[in-house]
Structure formats: C-alpha cells, structure tokens
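It is time I had a proper look at our fold encoding. Can you supply me with one protein entry, sequence and fold together? It will help me judge whether the discrete encoding reads sensibly. Leave the record below and I will have a look:
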Amino acid sequence: MNDATSTKNSIQDFAHCGTALYQFADELDPECFPSAFFRLVRNAIRFDGASMGRASVDRSENAVKIEDAHVYGRRPDLLDEWERQLRHDPLTARFLLGLESPLACTLPVFYRKRGAQVMEDFAVRHELSQILLFGESVNGALQWLAFYRKTEVPFGDEDTAFLHALWPMFRSASRMNLLRALERADEGRHSRAFALINRSGGVEAADTRFLQLLREEAPQHDVASLPPRVMQVLMQGRPYRGMATEIEMKAMRGHAVCTIRRRPGVSRLSQAEARVAEHLLTGLSYKQIALRTGTSPNTVRNQIAQLYRKLGVHDKFGLLAALRSHSPNSYLQ
C-alpha cells in the first residue's frame, strides 16, 4: 500500500470514528459506551486490549484513586492491581507531569530501564508488551485511554497521530454520553439543574442553569468545582441546604450527579446580601463586615434590614437562627 492510499484510509477511518462516536454517545447507555468505542477504534488502531477511565489526583502525595474505569480484552483486575502499585510506577509519574502527545513504548523495557522490577513483572503478567497511552487532567480529575498489544510489534506513528486527533472527540463524546443518560433519567424535572461532579468536587459537565445557581449560592467561589463546604455535606449523604439553593447528589458510573434548585423564601437574596449573611454567621460587627465587603456601615445596615424582611424575622436571634437553618454548620470555610 502506498503512502497516498494509507493517508486516504486513515482520513476515512477518522471520519467514520467521529461520526459513529457521537452517535454512540447520543444513543447508548453509559455501561455500553466503552465497549462500543473500543470495537469502533479497532478498525483504525490494531490492539488486543485496552482501558479507559477517570481518576482523582492528589498531587501533594502523588496519589491517584480510580473512580470509574473499563477494561477491554484483559483481566478485569488489571486496573485494581495497577492502582495498588502506583507508587512504584514511573509511567504514572510521567503521565501526571502531562503528555503533549500520546506515549508509545515497549512497557517491560520501559520499566526495566528504570529499575521498576515490580512494574515489569506486572506488565509481563498482564501481557502488556506494548502500550499506547494518552490523557489529561482537568479540575483535579485524570482521564485516560490506553491500548495494549501482546506482541513485540510496537505502536507506530500513525497510531499515535490517530489517537492524538481522536482524543478531543472522545472527551467530548464521553461527557455527552453521561449527560444524555442523565437527561433521560431526569425527564420532567425541569425545576432542577444538573451537573456531573468528580469525587474531588470538580464540575466535569453542567448545564448553564446549574452554573448560574451555583454562582448565586457561592458568589466568591470558582464554579469549576463545588465549594468545599458543599462537598463536605454531600459526601455525608445529606442534601446541602444553602441560603439560596438546595443541592443533592447521587452516584452514577463513577461520577456524582448533582442537582440544584432554588429554595423558596431565600431565593430572593442578592449576592451582596448573601455575602453579608455569611459574615454575620461568623460573628462580625457591621463595621467589620463593611471593611470585608468594601462598603459603608450604612450600606451593611440596609442589607441586613433586607435580610430581616426577606427571611421574615424581627430580631437578631431570629435572623441568625434562620440563616443557620438554611445552611449547615460547615457553610463557612
């Protein structure tokens, strides 16, 4: 086969993969999407095993915890064993530094050159002679694709280029697949907005209304993740009842699916009033709140008067009680 024919076939394979990938994402359940993806890609990249998944990353301890993964063509315990050996794995360490392009290598040799006998034995035991690996870290979560071969034939430049080009579509399609499944599960509940959250609290995908309501609830927090005070409550299996919203969480294929909705009676608080309320709960005086918010004491008094009116209370004790009832003890960091 000449170079022109090979290039033409590669372009056709890529176009076919892209079209089919988004069709799979739209139509298949999340449990079926990984296997369908790997069967599709085998037309372009020759492999006899693969894995995909997401993991949370604690960079302070160089630790990785698998949250959601799928193994294809290898023993199911492949990634369980890999997770137990992470601290001995120079490939993982390199991956965490970031890959500009897919990494292809003869895995036992890679480990042998670095004196990683435990990992070399692992590669041999699971018949990971060749590996083609790519992925990235977003919002504290690591997502990857890995392809394996038992044979001594290495992955080539065409394989590497194909995976590099396919990666953005794969990330988009996998997120779309989860969102479509969530939409089907949440049909008819239009008063709520939703998002997919990883175990570190990072927002992997969300509708516009979710982000809008989250900003109202925590105006000073980056909406790329849930505030720590919210995660602390949700991880205890309880709904988070804030000043403006109520947030709930349920598990779904390695993710947390969060729904958010306005709370009656407190949804009318402005962002400025919510900030003043937060400071009141810490015991700050009017003057101290004015310094923190960059306003005058008179402005703070007017905002607190609005809190009394909107929350339907008539004294400071009632105001503080109302604010605490709308927010768990961990509301403030």
Observations:
- The longest helix spans residues 157-185.
- The first strand starts at residue 49 and ends at 58.
- The two ends are 64 Å apart (CA to CA).
- The chain has 13 helices and ten strands.
